[in-house]
Amino acid sequence: MVNSVDEYLALLRKELAGSDAAVIQDALADAEEHLRLALAQAISGRPDISEVEAIPPIVEKYGSPQEVSTAYREMEARAPAGFGRSARVGHQSIVSRFFGVIADPRAWAALLYLLLSLGTGIAYFTWAVTGLSLSLGLLVLIVGLPLAILFLLSIRGIAFIEGRLVEALLGVRMPRRRMFFDDTTGFWKKIKSLFTQRITWTALAYCVLQLGLGIAYFTVFAVLIGLSVYLIAMPITVGVLDMPAYIILGDTEYLATDWSVPIFFLLGVLLLPATMHLAKLVGKGHGALAKFMLVSKQD
Amino acid sequence: MWGKNKNVEETESADKKFQKELVSGVAALVLLTILDKAAEPMYGYQIAKVIDGQTEDTAMLKQGALYPVLRSLESSRLLQSRVEPSVSGPPRRYYQITELGRSTLARWKDMWNQMRTFVDTVTEGEGNGQ
Known about the structure:
The complex is a heterodimer. Chain A is mainly α. Chain A has helices spanning 5-15, 21-45, 51-62, 65-78, 94-100, 105-137, 144-170, 187-196, 198-232, 234-240, 261-294; strands spanning 246-249, 252-255.
């Protein structure tokens, strides 16, 4: 028999084991919101009743951990995250799959994320490094600790916002609700859990890491997209506008001849979808990284 | 004795399964209707209370199963929500019906009425075939 909200949450977590980490976090947040409210109402109505007595009817109405976890599992199976499934799945030739990526909103969304990551990377890195050095530096003084706490809370906020961005653009299921701290525990316990939970530190590391990744993503994809567009536009720039086209290999400059222009054009036509496929792939990898570093597994 | 118990168990699980299938379709309709009638945004516990107040038989619809439905209605843009901190306890998520939700609800109500008439005709008119 369940005797407290925490016990129920622990059972629910056990039932949800194996589900998506973000689903678990959402389900636990919903259950906690409901059960604590219901408990507060029950106790305010009859002050003589204890938590152990009040819990069973509340849980009876809310549903057993088993029933609730089934409800979340089924809902998640029906509703895909983010941009959702691709419109057409199934028997398509390799050629149409290769070029079809141009019309795939998920590929463009992933590309957008990768280009944006330079900006977010700079912002996260600056914030993380400034906050970290400021709180560490001032830790010898009394203001250092509150500053460190505020800073770590802001990192958790960044983790949530970045999660929303990752879900929207990369289609990886991320938490849709903020984590909150157990209200029944004391103030110091909450502070302590902020320092001991794994996610605080992985999120901080993510903020630092994002700058390097953002620079790499931006450079690679800006060059690839730029090059594809340049190659595809060559018939116009060389043929119609009469602009000279250079290729520089080592120290030698070659001027593109008229007959080579169609070949470069073809190269561009192949390079653009290849870049989009690469964007999708890198986006997938980054989504997995974000999921690992920004979603709490156990707290 | 053992065989009898097994039969009872099987009946129960069949009932549970049927109930779950029924509820999974109807829950969305119920939630949309409640939020359509509501004057202002409501949070999950409030909605559960409203359902509780309207019917005695709450065993049909577990409160815990409402939240994933709310969430899925939101992701299909029939509802919108915002989180507000509360003075006591965890922050609450307030749900509100959208324009799309209203027009969808009107269609779903029609579908529900058709379905109800259809099921009533079939289940109550069982003697007609003979």
